[in-house]
Each structure stands twice: as C-alpha cells, then as structure tokens.
Amino acid sequence: MKKYEAFISYRHTEPDKTIAEKLHKMLETFRVPSSIAKKIGKRKINRIFRDRDELPTSSNLASSIEVALINAEYLIVICSPRTPQSQWVLKEIETFSKLHGHGKILALLIEGEPSESFPEQLRFIPKQTINDDGIITEELIEVEPLAADIRGKNLKEMSKKLKTEILRLLAPILGCHYDDLKQRHRERFIKRVVTVSVSAALFFLAFGSFSAWQALKLKLQVDKTLRGQSLYLSDLSKQLLEEGDRRTAMLLALEALPINLEHPERPYVEEAEYALSQALAAYKTDYYFVSDIALNHRKGITDIKISDDGSKVFTVCNDGNIYLWNTENGELLHSFPYDTTFIDEGNTFFTKDGTAIVSLTDRGAAAWDINSGTTLWELEGYFNHIALNPDGKTIALSSDMLHLIDIKTGTELFSLPISNLDDGYVYSLQFNNDGSKIAVGTNNGLTLVFDTINQKELYSLSCTYEYVYSLAFSHDGNKIAAVSNYFDTSDPLSKGKGSLQIWSANDGSALATIHVDSSSIKYPIFSPKDSNIVIFTEDEIVRVINATTKEMLYSFTHGDAVHSVIVTKDGDFIVAATYDGNIQFYSLQNGMEIDWWRLYQNTPIRSMDMGNGLIATASSNANKAYIWKMIEAPNLTRLEGHSTSIRSGKFSNDGKKALTFDYDESAIYVWDIEQKTLISKLTGLEGVVVDACFDPTDTKIISLSEDGYLRLWELSTLKELTSIPAGEFTDYRYNADGTFAAFQTGDGIKVLDILQCKEVLTISDYSFISDFLFSGNGNNLLVIDWDGNAYLYDIQTGEIIHSFSDLILRKGAFNKDSTLLALAGENGIYLFDMSTFKEICHIEAPNLSVVSMAFNYNGSDLLVGLDDKTIQVYDVKTGQWKAELTGHRNNLSHCIYREAGNLLITIGEYGDSIFWNASNYKKLAQIDRILDIDSHSKTILSSHNSEVILMPHYDTNALKEEARKQLGNRELSEEEKIKYYIIE
C-alpha cells in the first residue's frame, strides 16, 4: 500500500483544478535544503495524492479515496468560494479529521475571504464535555486552520505567490519551522545565483576571452550580482536586528557596503546604509533596553545567569555543557561539561565572589574557575537540587540527605537525613538570607526547615498539595512561603490547582493560605521593602498580595504563561517574562505597567536574569540566548534645563545656536551648539509658548504664545522689542522665511508682518476653513473654505487674485518658487501653472484622504501624505505614481530638504522622522523625534522628555567608522561567512 505525504482535496473547477496540479508538481519536485534534510532525514517529498492522477480505474471511487485518506499524513484543502459547495471535499475533510485529527489539515486560500472560502468543517471542531450529572454535551469550537494565502488578480499572480507560500505547507509536512525553511530556501537560491554569476564573470575577465564590450557587459553582470548580494545582506541584517543579534547585524550591513566609497569594489545600496544606521542605533534617544548580542547554541537552553559585576553570563545548554560568555562583545570564554542532557533552571549559579560556577552534573556536582576554565572540585553522588548560601561560603545539596558543602574545596561539612521522604524526593531547596536556615520542599507535600548552625531539623510544615514546587524566605528572615500544586493526570487540559502558604520562619506557625482552584502557581517572592507583600504567578497572571490581610493588591495578566519573575533589589518594580517572548515591567508603587519599557523577543522565553544594567534571556526552542542593554546613540549630548517635556525647537540660520520650549512653561531656552551649554532663558511671556524661531538675521527671537501674542525679542539682551495681538486662534502658518504669520480666528484669517509687528490683512468671510497656506515667495495666501472653494489672496492688497470654485478642494501646496500649485480634492489632485492658473495635470485619485502635501526640492515631484501614514510620490509633469514611502508612525507633517536637495527628511506630526535619498526615495535612517536639523546637515536637534538632545548626522563613512569602533576586533567568522553566503 502506498504511503502518501499529503492528500490534495479540491473542487474540480477552474482555477482550483490548475492550482491543484501546480501544487502537486511543486510538492513532489521540491528539494529540501541540506541543513534541514540532515535534521529530518529526508531530501524530498515522497508521494502526494491527487485524485485525477492517483486513482486506479475502479468502480468504487469513494472506496479508493478513503484508502488514500487512510494512508495520507496530511490533508491539503484548496479553498475558494466554490469549496464549501463541494460535498465531496467536505466529506474528505470530515473523514480525514476522524482518521488523523484536525491538526494535520492544511488550507491553501486561492480566492475569496476565509469566512466564505473555508468550509465549516475546517473552521470548527466538536468538543465533548461531561457535566456534574454525567451528561455528555457536544459543542463546536472555532479554530483557525493553518493556511497559506496565494490570492491574486489572476492565475499568473496566484502561481507566482505559490512559489513562496508553498513553504508554509511544507514546514509542517517536513516537521520544521516555517521561518527556518524560508531562510534556508532563500539562502540556497542566493548562493546559487552568486556563485554561478561571480565565478563565470571572474573566469572570463581573468582570461580575457571577450572583447572590451563583452568585458564591460560582464562587469555590469558582476555589479548586478554583487548588488543583489548587498541587498540580501542588508535584508538579513535587518532580520537579525529584529531577532536580537545587533552586533552580527552591524557586521552584515558593513559587509554589504563598499570598503572604499571613492573606488567601490561593490555597488553602493541605500538599504545597507539604512540597515547599518538601525543596527548601530545611530539616532536612538531613549534609555530603553535593546537586544545587543545573540548567543547561539546547538541545542536548547534551560538556564541563564548574569555575574554580579555584569561582565559575564553563563548559559546551561541541553548539549551537556555550560557556556561562559563575555557580555561586552559576546565572546565565548569557556565551556564546562556537566555531561547530561538536562539541568533544570536554578541548579547552576555564579559563586558570590564571581570567581567560579557551581552546578549539578550527571555524576553529582562540580565547580569551575571562570578565569582559567579549570575544574576546582567534583563530588560524586546523586543530587537533585543545589542551593547557594547567601554567605557565599557554602552550598546545599539534596538527595535523601541534606548535605552542606564548602564552596571553595567541595568538602562536605555535614549531612542530615530528610525525614518522611520514604520513596519521594526533594522538589525545592532554599536558604534564608543569612544562611542560618534552609528549607526543603518534597513531593510528599512537606516543607522541612533545618538549622544549619546547630545542624538539626527544626520543624516540618504540611502543604496543601503533594508537589512543593518552590520556596522563599522573606528578606527579614521572619517568614517562609511555599507553593504546592496538584495536577489531574487523567485530564490533559487541566491547568491544575495551586496553594500558597506562608508561615512564621521562627516557630512554623501558619500565617496565611491562598488557594487557586483553576491553575497551578509558582515563584513566591517577598518584597525586599515589606515582608507582608508577596508576589507569585498563576499561569498567565502575576499576583501581588498582602500576606497579613490576604488582600489582592495587583494582578498583571499576560498573553501566555509567565516563566520568570524578578523583583528589583529596591523593591520598586516587577519584571515578568512569558513564553510568548514578552518582558513586561510593573510598578509596585501603583500597580501600573511601564509599557514603554516592554520588550519582545521573537522566541519563547525559557529563562531570564537581570542585574548590573543588563537583562539576559534564553530560549530552548530557538537555541539562542540574548543580552539586552540600555543602548543609546553614540556621540549624543543631553542638555538639561527644562523641567517638563519639550514641545519643539529650532536652529538659528547659521546653526550656532538653538532655541527650545516646552509644554508648560512661559519660557524659551537658548543654547550654544558649539559649547553645548545653555546661554540664556527668555522669560516674561504671558502664556505658554506655542512656537518660536530666530529671525532671518539671527539677532532676534520671534515668539508666539497661547495668549495670542506675537512678540519680538532682542537676542543679545532678551528685551522685548515689540508685540502684536493675533487674538484667539485655532491654527496658524508661517511663510517660508518667517517674516509673515497667518492665524485662523473665529471668523476668518488674520495676517501679521512679524518683523514690523503689524497687521497687514484681515479676511472675515470664513467661519470654517479646510486649509490655508502661504505661497513659496510669501506674497500670496491660499484659503480653502469648508465648502471646498479655494481663493488666492494678494497679501499686500487683500484682493482675490484667483478662485478655484468648482473642484471641492481640501488641501493645497506651493512649490519653492511659487510657479506651481497643487490642490487635493474629492476627485484627486490638480496641478496648476501659477502664471496662467491653467490646469497642467490631474492625478486621478478619488477619495484620497490627503493630510498634507509638499513638492520636492526642484518641483518635479509631489509628495502626498495620506491618513494611513504613507507618503505617495507623483511625477508633476505626467501625474504618474512613482513611489510609496512607508515607515512613519504618524501622518506626514512636513518635509525638509538638505544637501542641495539630495537629502529628504520627512517629519511626522509628533516629530518621528525618516531620512531618504531624494533622488530615488530610498530610506537612509529613521529617528524617533526631530525638532530641527541645521542648514549644513551636521547636527540634529532632538529631545527625550525634558532633555534637549544634540546628535551628529552621519554620512556613510561616519556610520562605518562608528560601527568599527563599537565592534572592536569582532569580525565575521569563517563559519558565519559560509552561513551567510559571503564569497570573497
């Protein structure tokens, strides 16, 4: 009987039938990447069943299909709106589900929405429950089928998508992760292209077989191939950064850039500069943790710990070794064999003086010197738990006895029998803070407390359930907590029951008991500040209780089970890590999550440690450990002076000074950029500052306050020169050189000459306005009313020069020299020649939700910011769409051009900014917040909360130099070069 890897079920109509044929052929001809083939033991898919090809001529068609379903490992259902109408497909799903379970059914969506294309047999599975009376009821539970999506405009587009989406179907069939399969498949393709193209090109160039023209053609082909490799490495760099391997990400981005930009050996690609900028954290302004180093292992990791000085970290790996790493650069320092495949979390630790690592081994226990890598001592015997005495002098080991060991020599000081153990075993072990007591938890539901000074058992405590999972002493030594759990092994869906019990550590008297009937609980921790406060976990929840009153103070719920919990030494914060890869921080002062500190790694967290400004996490699934650090941008200067969050800021025209103002004060701060100091603080304003800037001569400051006053100040003396009221306003605009300001008031528009501090124009015909803006030369003002009519005013005369009254408009933009005007409305965008007011182009884009527009530096392109945070670029002459710019967190506010128009900076509504190559709209860098950039593109003015930040703007060479400085001697190893297909 044939054994099939998969059975393809489909409706025998088009395009379902053609897709089924293509899928069948692609599955049976797929070659498994060698790295995955070695793990799974197969190089290709064996057999796939599709009824048109595989059925014998039989009078009993249904019987033949049933036999094939019995002998198929997986069922692949090709889904379209036609699928739920096929009784044959529905019967195949039902039959396969009964035979092999719902988990082995895969869906391939080719048309329609999932709700209309996935049959109910795919989306729902029956679940039986038994109530207290023994009555069995059945209900349908909705599930999300594992699906690949190849929907497209036509069969050609669907077939193209199938080439990549087929990997989603292959991953479960091959028993590997989709991301791993995708990466290996792509690497194989890149390696093939690079190897063939470069080898052929170099061969012909070396032997001079071709003419000069042919040689040039070959060089172009080599450049094209190297460009492709650079793009691949850039993409891989960004991927590694997201995965938490910042330093390798830097190395790959460097590899993708030319060594010498003057005489490049490979083409320059902006993607590599962007990847390096991101990996370098060149423009990072916050203090938050970043995953700096990924530590790769060959097998899963069960534990990770940071040394007290933060210079080292060890990982316990399932390959039978403990690895010691340098936290500065990720260098592997030593490996120590414990010679077994599993050591549970908490059974390995640094000694208190940081000179050794102590751990259980397959033979007993051992200690290793972390400087020399040599073994200090070994003990033979069966021990199931180990604990470090806080005095740093001894350790405890448990078997059927409790052993106290000298940590320096491994000499046993004494041993005590563990009473009432019978055939049970020790489940947990914990010293109190001064090492005078040690508690032992067993699987017989007992907690035994021993006096280590007088070498005797003090008392025995009965726990609610058998398994005493973990123990804790309060920091003052007066209380002891034990967690015990019970699991119903007959019910695989049971989360168990849990109990937290607290006793007096002095006499064993009961103080509190907390029962949980619906889940197990773990990790009791006493607050370092208050021994009445106890933290513990209940599956996905971290709970905080008052042990005296039993009051539940806080509950912090997560999306997956909490695996590791740490309370900071000051007792102010809880740090919780979950299996879904989240690390969350909570305040014990107010019970709130500090959500801006939340971290995420894309693999489940198996173990976590925190100390000395570092966080270390380990994952058993991905065989990786990560070191997180508080990294900020290099060469960044923080200036203090503000007491509240900074609102905005501007450079002077010569870039030697800058001013800033915040949200709460009636003050303007003036800074010396070269000296990086506060020059002066301008006060005396009668309202909070809304806006401020230097005048064109850099000798005066112009301020606008919430009280509606424009004021002019002498910079040298900080004396007020003059002021003019704008009145109550809802919005305002400046012209390009900052000499005029227009204000939207209750009944219209008011235009003020800033330097003369006088009103030059009042337009009182508008109660509601969609947009208003100055022309590029500042002579005209465009007003778009609520009805969609646009009027162009001469500022000096107040006359309407031209009106646009038949288009229903909402937004406008002038180019730099005011020769072009763009107007966005309900039926698209219209471009006008300002000399004749004739329409020169219509961009047909009805219902385009435009929030802002701007012309590029020379007026050849129009940048249109939409309410979905994208920026659409159109050619002004033809109206053709050119590019879509993405990456902003907020809608586009305005654009800045520097370097003679070669550098474009797009700035979002709250300052998030992206740097682009203005000639091809390729992304160069991304910055959380920009207030301004000087006219020479050398210095960026930014802020973080109440701090003013100055940072350099990096060109490509500066980025490379800074990266090399951070990396030190770290280079890609030969193994890494092979892994990432870097051919030298």
UniProtKB/TrEMBL annotation:
Q: Which parts of the chain span the membrane according to its record?
A: 193-213
Arranged from A to Z, the UniProt key words for this protein are: Membrane, Repeat, Transmembrane, Transmembrane helix, WD repeat
Q: Gene3D superfamilies, alphabetically?
A: Toll/interleukin-1 receptor homology (TIR) domain, YVTN repeat-like/Quinoprotein amine dehydrogenase
Q: Which SUPFAM superfamilies match?
A: Quinoprotein alcohol dehydrogenase-like (SSF50998), Toll/Interleukin receptor TIR domain (SSF52200)
Q: Where do the TIR domain residues begin and end?
A: 2-159
Q: Which Pfam families match?
A: TIR_2, WD40
Record has Ribonucleoprotein as a keyword = no
Q: Where are the WD repeats?
A: 294-335, 639-681, 682-723, 843-884
Q: What is this protein called?
A: TIR domain-containing protein
The organism is Defluviitalea saccharophila
